[in-house]
Amino acid sequence: MSSLQGKVAIITGAGAGMGKAHARLMAERGATVVAQDIDGARAEETARLIRDNGGTAVACVCDVADTAALTSSLLASVDQFGRVDILVNNAGIGGEPLIEDTTEDYFDRTFAVHVRGSFFATKAVLPMMKARKSGKIINISSVWGMVGHHYASPYCAAKAALLGLTKAWAKELAPWNIHVNAVAPGGVLTEMVLAQPDIEKKMPQKVARVPLGRYAEPRELSYTVAFLASSEADFITGQVISPNGGEVIVGI
Ligand SMILES: NC(=O)c1ccc[n+]([C@@H]2O[C@H](COP(=O)([O-])OP(=O)(O)OC[C@H]3O[C@@H](n4cnc5c(N)ncnc54)[C@H](O)[C@@H]3O)[C@@H](O)[C@H]2O)c1
Asked: Could you tell me the pLDDT band of residue 2, with boundaries at 50, 70 and 90?
């Protein structure tokens, strides 16, 4: 089991779903957690659950798409700890429009949350990682960013952009011993999926595309994220790991 003892981890979008699961698992493995979310009550709840379990956590509330607020609130949150070892760029929004149904606002918001949010969260913490010559950045992409989908093209494009950032940052930041990887989940049972209209009707069809015959529980993804955040992954950078139940198997 990969230890995160003594590490300080920021997880964006930690108020629900996979971000919450990542925050809780990392705390169980010894990390001090900054649980960031746009929803203050949910961020506080994640931090409280960790503290109730004997861990150390603070909530950080802002919209990752608001660069000024993101930068100042992340820096204020980690100030008391004096370091950042791990950043998980997880905050995300769903939506599955066809091209004809995509508004400019939806397009811009999708890129602002997924791409700009991840970019400027990284920029905010980088000086601290560079100073220590150590860091782990994990960008949460999606199988749809790897292979596309027959709707939701702005989401697919934003998730593909995160793969581009992952590869470029891995090269740019290697001299500072900062590892950058992406996790590209397949279907996971979170609100992003379960709140979709008619989900009960759609689920059998969705699951039928997955060789393992099911969607994942959020915590199943956290094991991959915690591994990449640990010293066990010290020779891994610029990679995309896709826990997806076999839904996407990329050949050579
Ligand atoms: N659920 C899936 O099947 C699936 C598959 C592949 C990738 N993903 C990606 O995994 C990540 C987590 O998704 P999830 O399924 O846990 O989603 P979720 O909707 O359950 O949780 C997302 C969290 O992000 C927060 N958030 C949304 N916008 C934000 C913003 N602007 N600033 C800060 N926080 C914000 C929400 O408040 C929420 O707590 C997302 O990036 C998503 O795109 C999800």
From this structure: confident
Whether the per-residue pLDDT at 251 is higher than 90: the answer is: no
Tokens of 130: 């560079």
Q: Where are the domains positioned within the chain?
A: 8-186+216-241
Which letter does DSSP use for residue 197 in this model? T
End-to-end CA distance of the chain: 30
Taking phi over 0 as left and psi of -120 to 50 as alpha, with beta for the rest, 198 belongs to left
Look-up: residue for tokens 């015959």? 213
Residues with CB under 6 A from ligand 1: 12-13, 15-19, 37-39, 42, 63-65, 90-93, 113, 140, 142, 185, 187-188, 190-193
Which residues make beta-bridge pairs with 86? 9, 136
Percent helix, strand, coil in the chain, to 5, is 50, 15, 35
Token pair recorded at residue 19: 């971000």
Best CA proximity match to 210, nearest among 241, 248, 242: 248
DSSP state of 115: I
Catalytic residue among 106, 155, 215, 223: 155
Mutate to test the pocket of ligand 1, among 77, 192, 196, 248 (most ligand atoms within 8 A of CB): 192
Pairing status of strand 32-37 against strand 178-183: unpaired
Q: How many residues does the chain have?
A: 252
**Active-site residue, 155 included:** yes
- Cβ count within 10 A of residue 13: 29
Residue-level pLDDT at 250: 83
Half-sphere exposure at residue 33, Cβ-oriented, CA atoms within 13 angstroms: 39
In the block, which residue shows the tokens 């992340």?
74
The superfamily (CATH) of domain 8-186+216-241 is NAD(P)-binding Rossmann-like Domain (3.40.50.720)
